[in-house]
Amino acid sequence: MWLRPVLFIAVLLAVWQVAIYRRPGQLLPGPIGVASGILDLMQHGLLLRYVIASLFRVTWGFGLATLTAIPLGLMLGWYRRGEMAFYPLVQVFRPISPLAWIPVAILWFGVGDLAAIFLIFVGCFFPLLLTAMSAVHNIPAVYFNAGRNFGLSSSAFVSRVLYPAVVPQLLIGLRITLGIAWLVVVAAEMISVNSGLGFLIVDARNAGNRYDLVVAGMVIIGAIGLLLDLAMRSLEQVRSFHWSSSED
Amino acid sequence: MSSAQAVVTVAGAGNKLRVQHLGMVFERDGEAVSALEDINLDVSEGEFVCIVGPSGCGKSTLLNVVAGFLSPTSGSVTIDGEAVSGPDPRRILVFQERGVFPWLTVEGNIGFGLSKLPRAEREARIAHYVQTVRLQGFEKAYPSDLSGGMKQRLQVARALAVNPDILYLDEPFGALDSITRVIMRGELLRIWQTERRTILFVTHDIDEAVQMADRVVVLSSRPAKIKDILIIDIPHPRNISSPHYLELRDELLKQIGLAYEI
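Structure tokens for the assembled complex are given below, as produced in the milestone run.
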């Protein structure tokens, strides 16, 4: 199962290296150049520092968005009237790219972590809100009726029926949104801070056109993005969480 | 057998459930649609009553009103003299499909309504009802690993575990294949005979009704009124090719307005 993709990537890398060797130029560094760029970053202790800086911002922005958007979304999904009031507003804010908020973020929070965290928060908030709202709408009525029939109190109903019923959809929404957060952090770091993987990329270009470091940064971003996605997927595989995919 | 519009009590111990002049009107696109009209029905303790009628006639609506999930627009439902005002764990409704919680194991589902019991008692009850519906060996399985018939047995077990005095079943075997359906009827009858609950069973399957019920309530098409109530006076186990069985089944077919021949 692992053999094919690994082999395929190895072939691609070889082709890339051969192509660079046959036509050396300034267009792109080769895999060996990129690898030595990564090594270079590691030796200077920059790699770990930048990765931690980026993950720190994502954790806060994504975490705050999760803590606010999901309870609010579940509530709005539950109380249809609240949803009717909120929905147009959500639909206006949702299509605004989080990058459009950059000037506002800098105005409010200055250049620094807070601005980047705010941008990630904005980028995650609306998708999560909509996920939570639709998760409530998609609960089959029969679960509500069964829950009511057994005489649950409202708090027991929330924890024993509503919550487990929405978890599978929330996990999918969280996974997709974490991907968004990882996209936004790179963009945010290019403008509003001076550390992190996004900063690494602009900085490498500005400070002497070190394209080996630019591509090294891209590779690291891709690899960490993949790891984050795998981590979320493994959460979806928890037995009592992933029921929806196997039902019907 | 002769049918009787009047109140008939079969199994003896007085009226458990009484439905009086029940009416239900829905609002649909600004228009009033009548679903139930002047339904009167008495069910005795321990009795097995089937409700049949053409599809879409309001059978399920009637069951949902009786179970307290819907409020009637007129008339009343009383159980042991007490008016029904909402769903109640003393009366459990078994749904046609997706009634079990897919995030809980078999044990978790059966124990769903038992969270207030002490642990030991809860576990004993779960074990008992796993036995009753013959799901031994599947205690830790999730519903997605069970067949359709097993899921319905699980739903019945979850209902029985809270010790309800009435079971409402809303076409519980309607989504099963015909062989499983016949097996499930036998299982439900066996459980009913050992546990002795009052059962109100909605079905569109005429054979199902004649095979199981003490009485069969025939509803008309929408708005549903009680057309007739048939007494099925054949002791269990029923011989489904006996002349009397066939006679009752034909009577029921006629009531619903179906010919004997296709």
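Residues 23 and 37 of chain B are 5 Å apart (CA to CA). Residues 178-195 of chain B form the longest helix (18 residues). Further analysis is deferred to the final report.
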